[in-house]
Design a protein that fits this description.
Elements: E1 3-10, E2 13-18, E3 30-34, H1 36-39, E4 50-55, E5 61-66, E6 72-73, E7 78-79, E8 83-89, H2 97-109, E9 114-120, H3 130-138, E10 142-145, H4 154-161, E11 165-169, H5 176-183, H6 193-201, E12 209-212, E13 218-221, H7 235-238, H8 246-249, H9 266-272, H10 278-297
Parallel strand pairs: 3-5, 8-9, 8-11, 9-10, 11-13
Antiparallel strand pairs: 1-2, 1-4, 2-3, 4-5, 6-7, 12-13
Helix pairs in contact: 2-10
The structure holds guanosine-5'-diphosphate, magnesium ion (MG) and zinc ion.
Length: 298
């Protein structure tokens, strides 16, 4: 049976690129439906999935089976992403560190192998943001400073995209589409906060789409990832999604330690010694609290 990759989904159709074909600006895609059996499972096939399909006489196809996924990012769902570039603006809108941490945890939870932070709109920030980024650099994240308007950081992002499937996550209005257009003008993505609001008002389907970049690599264009689903994650695993907390967890006296109120906690001791940052610890507590509140509501 032939296999291929789902490049986009729309209104119950799945557009598949046959294996061996190249993803170009205007690729030849096979429009497929789902076989009833997998149709009944919500989210069984999403953009980025590798699938087996049967060709029908009329030139369309039927997806019979989804092949195993490397990764799955939620809201909107995209499978098999190699890298996520979490994008925020330094100004307009002002950077919100709690939200940045929520996006980082979302990416760690989704098991995305490469997680990069991109801070856009450097042209609006006269001062250095080095102090702001220190906790994230210390945690092991690569941070790129960029300006889509002044073409700063564009070459660095281009080199990161090569050979990978990369999603740009982050709040709306930070300049994700503008950065992608600066990276490859052929993408000609719509920019501007107002146009996005109009789109949402029209109840367009929240669909993701894979796009090739001229300088190499594939990017995922999405209407924007949401970091709202974090309440679903297991509170016992949360600390492990903060890479710099990982080696400290085994130093906790209680193996059920939530690193909030317990004595002799490896993470709280590291905080007191200045080894981990207050900002990251506060984000941990905040997300922990939202998980606990959700549990209570049920
Ligand atoms: N000053 C400045 N504005 C930018 C920059 N990048 C994007 N913008 C503006 O920010 C707004 C939102 O950009 P857009 O790319 O649509 O953001 P998205 O919602 O993240 O895709 C638009 O008005 C852009 O012109 C930048 O580097 N500097
Ligand atoms: Mg956009
Ligand atoms: Zn602890």
């Amino acid at each position: 049976m032939p296999t291929g990759q789902v490049i986009k989904t729309y209104n119950g159709f799945y557009y598949v690129l046959e294996d061996g074909r190249e993803l170009t600006q205007n690729p030849e895609l096979l429009s497929c439906r789902l076989r009833g059996r997998i149709k009944r499972i919500k989210g069984s096939v999403v953009t980025g999935d590798m699938v087996e399909y049967e060709l029908l006489g009329d030139g369309t196809g039927v997806i019979e089976k989804r092949l195993p996924r490397k990764t799955l990012l939620h809201r909107p769902s995209v499978a098999n992403i190699d890298q996520v570039i979490i994008t925020f603006a330094l100004r307009e809108p002002d950077i919100n560190s709690l939200l940045l941490n929520r996006f980082l945890v979302l990416a760690e939870w989704s098991d995305i192998p490469e997680i990069v932070i991109c801070l856009n709109k450097t042209d609006l920030l006269p001062a250095s943001a080095d102090e702001f980024v220190k906790p994230y650099v210390d945690a092991g994240y690569r941070v790129i400073f960029a300006s889509a308007h002044e073409k700063q950081g564009i070459e660095e992002i281009r080199s990161l995209l090569k050979g990978k499937v990369t999603a740009f996550a982050g709040p709306s209005g930070v300049g994700k589409s503008s950065l992608l257009n600066a990276i490859d003008s052929n993408l000609s993505l719509t920019t501007g906060v107002i146009s996005e609001k109009i789109k949402r008002g029209k109840h367009t389907t929240r669909a993701a789409c894979l796009l090739p970049v001229a300088s190499g690599g594939i990017v995922v264009d999405t209407p924007g990832f949401s970091a709202a689903e974090l309440e679903q994650l297991d509170k016992n695993l949360l600390a492990g999604y903060f890479p710099e907390f990982r080696p400290l967890i085994e130093k906790c006296y209680y193996n059920t330690c939530t690193h909030s109120h317990e004595p002799d906690c490896g993470i709280k001791n590291a905080l007191a010694e200045g080894i981990i940052s207050q900002e990251r610890y506060d984000a941990y507590l905040n997300i922990l609290q939202s998980i606990l509140e959700r549990k209570k509501a049920y």
